[in-house]
Amino acid sequence: MKVRTRYAPSPTGRMHVGNLRTALYEYLIAKHENGEFILRIEDTDQERFVEGAVDIIYRTIEKTGLIHDEGPDKDKGFGPYIQSERQKAGIYLKYAKELIDKKEAYYCFCTKERLESLKCTVEGSEEGKEITKYDKHCLHLSKEEIEANLAAGIPYTIRQNIPQEGTTSFTDAVYGTITVENSELDDMILIKSDGFPTYNFANVVDDHLMQITHVVRGNEYLSSTPKYTRLYHAFGWEEPVYIHCPLITNEEHQKLSKRSGHSSFEDLIEKGFVPEAIINFIALLGWSPESDQEIFSLKELEEQFDYRRINKSPAVFDMTKLRWMNGEYIKAMEKEKYYEYALPYIQKVITKEYDLKLIADLVQTRIETFEDIAEKIDFFEQLPEYDCSMYTHKKMKTNSESSLEVLKELLPKLEELSDYSIAGIEQTIMTYIHDRGIKNGQGLWPVRTAVSGKQSTPGGAYEIMNILGKEESLYRIRKGIEMLSNNV
RNA sequence: GGCUCAUUGGUCAAGCGGUCAAGACGUCGCCCUCUCACGGCGAAAACAGCGGUUCGAUUCCGCUAUGAGCUGCCA
Under 8 Å CB-to-CB from A385, ≥6 apart: which residues? Predict the structure, then answer.
């Protein structure tokens, strides 16, 4: 049977990395087996629906390359692929009623108030935590009562009927077989009073109808999976392979969520991360290959991904390592692609007529995200205020006096220089250094300091002077001489 | 509180009864070097605890501890 996986996001905003990883794994499981990857929009929660969120989903899929084979825009006969449309078509109600006929579900007319009264606070635990277990009140309604309520238009939900005895087991591909007491399971709502199915119910119905073979989701669903199992059994449907992924947590080991405002894919992109690096990084959060390879293209992941190697324990989303990996991608980038990424970030800082590509070249091996660029190149735009003490460097064996000397002696030679290329500048300065018999550092440290005004710079003196051009770099050197003269 | 799951260095992780317990990020040191990077080399750093099972446990079982998730007409 052909492997079919689905990514079923609910359009409630940006995609956080946990969701994205689920999508990635679903995609990889399908592609590894030459199967199909399906996109389904789970918009059953009318209240949380966010305008434009569906576009974000499409955009993210596009950018990450997790291209779906079927979806709202690619109907291959399993549509509609949007749950609100399926709801309108009456799909869920039909199946819910089938369960009612089988006594596996029942109408519930309980009011919010009555449900509220069922709540009890948990003693001994942190403030005000409440739990509800439905008391099956409406299960015992007579046929006549139900008919009457329905006829009277009393709002209702449909609940799953779970017996109080026995146990339910299911097998997960990563966590193994899990068994729970039925008495622990609540009669969950299948159809809400607004007529929409709950996520859980819609999932089971749609996954079956769309012939999904592998259900991948976060392990926060592990606890509710027995309810799914009961649903599948009640319908007489075959269960899919369950693949629950370990949670991705923040540095505090708390679940990463949209609500907590933690990094969404789009946030990361805005911060100067590249999609390939993000994908690569999250693939390795909760999964490891057989080899110790760490840098993977999507294609390589497709080839090597084996869901049997997914981890059980939660993983911390380590921004530091992501940054490193992003840096690796930046370093490995083709020049043209790199410029395309880098130029906007450079233009934010540089307005002067410099060769921006040269500046870009300087920082390619020195940044981890594109946001890092700004503070590394700002001195090109404007010479920062700096102190004379910067000319003193123990290791370089320089101080204010020696620096002043070097700059003074070098200035006329540079003024005469017509070939202001890197090679030309290098030749002039190196000749001087040799003639004077001083160390490279003694000659170059003062120059680099003067033209940049910074302790550290991307590139060396030659490169910087070349980019600044003769006029500007000589101006900066004169300024350095002036400063030093006043100081010495 | 109940249930479920998890526990290898700070972090990601390999390991699937016998290893001096991989590798990566980060940290630190050295080399390269006009600075910062890059690159190269090296170091420190871990099996939560206690009981079993076994000739032998990081690996299997139990208990404890810790953490997390679920316990919604959210997903």
Answer: A453
